Amino acid sequence: MNTDTTRIDWVRQSSRLLGAIAVEFESTKPFRGLTIGTGIHLEPKTAALLLTLAIGGARVVATGNLSSTQPETVDYLTARGIEVFAQKTTDAAVHGQSLSQILEQKPHLLLDNGGDLFVRYLDAPYEGLLGGTEETTSGRMRLEPLRQQLELPILVINDSPIKQFAENRHAVGQSIFESFMRLTNRSTNGKRVTVFGYGACGKGVAACFRNAFSLVSVVDTDPVTTLEAHLDGFATPLRQDAVKTADIIITQTGAADVVTADDFDHLKDGVILLNGGHFPTEIAVDTLVSNDLVVKRQVIDGEGIESLHLRDGRIIHLLCHGHMANLAGPRPLGNSIESMDLGFALQARCLERVATGGADKTDCIVPVPTDIDAMIATDYLVLNR
Ligand SMILES: NC(=O)c1ccc[n+]([C@@H]2O[C@H](COP(=O)([O-])OP(=O)(O)OC[C@H]3O[C@@H](n4cnc5c(N)ncnc54)[C@H](O)[C@@H]3O)[C@@H](O)[C@H]2O)c1
User: Fold this and answer.
1) Residue 283 DSSP one-character state
2) Of 162, 313, 315, 341, which sees the most CB atoms within 10 A?
3) Sheet harboring 131-134: ordered strands across?
């Protein structure tokens, strides 16, 4: 009996929606004769998606995103017939070559994450592109001004309500909480936690820490959103009061310089700062670390914790140098498999819709069709009854 299995096998077994779609695709083969070019993180959860597309008859040519390519996922996919053009790199030029290699294969469908593939396609258009999908809001914003040039069906996954509540609200909160515990091994009970930003993600973060017996306050620049936090039962102190009293500060805004060196004088001794927003600029890490007040900087190698000792004796702890705490540091797992399974089931169904002619050029940069949302929601509920 072969007992060898990998984390990617575990993820695939746990991705039950994609598993059910793969069984269906095995007979329907919606992508027969088509090449799908993908530019999305090469990690275990996306591997489950790419292999489902391949079972649906596609030739899949795949690259990743900047800095996130996992070599074991590349090996796993390559061994199963996916053509991967990627290497783990933080060099945009090197990554750009991989994107070009994907487009040189002249895919019929593109699965994009951030608009990289569609923007490059416009630089050198070719015959036969049917359309595809875009995963993110940032990609949608980049592609919207290019609608007239693209004139192809492109369905935006992030604009599905399922993606909004399953991943952004529920999963980000859980994984930021899980990452705080994993990185620090510190209790959350009775701790004063301030969450900056009460959008979809911040709501989940605030709820998860409240459920873990923290005293959670919310700071949001939008008064209407702050009112919502207030009515949801969170403390909504003035920013300066929240900063002074917090044991843990979490940024979840999408904006830069949310916590800055100006806050240094006010932060509580022992405060832990972490970020869950996309860019590592929400906490002004560079100005914090190089501040004159810092007399000693201690970094625990490979643990994602650095401690800044201040002249006046206070210590400020920073997690993952301000990078997304659930995707950085030791053993980053990211959002739950189920939340990603939901999002990737939307991907598979949307690509099927475009491949089979169910969307046209009037569907250029539009949300997931509501009947697909309903189908995925029903399937998930049936599998979980
Ligand atoms: N870590 C992850 O796995 C993960 C997953 C999804 C999204 N994200 C990222 O999380 C961030 C938030 O996403 P979202 O969907 O909740 O966004 P959102 O736009 O729904 O909410 C952001 C909130 O932050 C508030 N805000 C903006 N600047 C602020 C400031 N300086 N101080 C306080 N509040 C401020 C806004 O008013 C808004 O209410 C984005 O960067 C997004 O890319 C991370």
Assistant:
1) B
2) 341
3) 83-84, 59-63, 35-39, 109-112, 131-134, 154-156, 364-367
Question: In CATH terms, are 7-163+336-383 and 170-322 the same topology?
Answer: yes
Element (H, E) at 63: strand 59-63
Tens-digit pLDDT profile for residues 208-235: 999 999 999 999 999 999 999 999 999 9
Q: Looking at domain 7-163+336-383, does it have CATH number 3.40.50.1480?
A: yes
SS3 279: coil
Q: What is the pLDDT of residues 8-33, one digit of tens each?
A: 999 999 999 999 999 999 999 999 99
CB 64 within 8 A of CB 50: no
Domain spans of the chain? 7-163+336-383, 170-322
Q: Does domain 170-322 have CATH number 3.40.50.720?
A: yes
Residues 18, 16: Cα–Cα separation, whole Å: 5
Instruction: Assign 3-state DSSP to the chain and report helix, strand, coil percentages, each to 5.
Output: 45, 15, 35
> Whose CA is closest to 327, among 248, 384, 274?
274
SS3 9: helix
Burial of 145 (0-12, 13-18, 19+ CB in 10 A): exposed
Evaluate: CB of 288 within 6 angstroms of ligand 1.
no
For the stretch 88-144, pLDDT in tens is 877 889 989 999 999 999 999 999 999 999 999 999 999 999 999 999 888 999 999
Which ligand 1 atom is at minimum distance from the Cα of 257?
31
- Kindly give the distance from the C-alpha atom of residue 332 to the centroid of ligand 1, in angstroms, as a whole number: 20
Alpha-carbon distances of 290 from 52, 308, 358, rounded to whole Å: 48, 10, 55
Ligand 1 pocket, residue 222 CB under 6 Å: yes
Q: Whose CA is nearest to atom 40 of ligand 1?
A: 254
Residue nearest to atom 31 of ligand 1 (CA): 258
Ligand 1 geometric centre to CA of 81 (Å): 38
Atom 6 in ligand 1: residue holding the nearest Cα: 168
Task: Pick the closest to residue 108 from 69, 57, 145, 142 (CA basis).
Answer: 57
Q: Distance between CA 53 and CA 65 in Å, rounded?
A: 19
pTM for the complete prediction? 0.90
207's CB contacts (< 8 A; 6+ apart) are 173
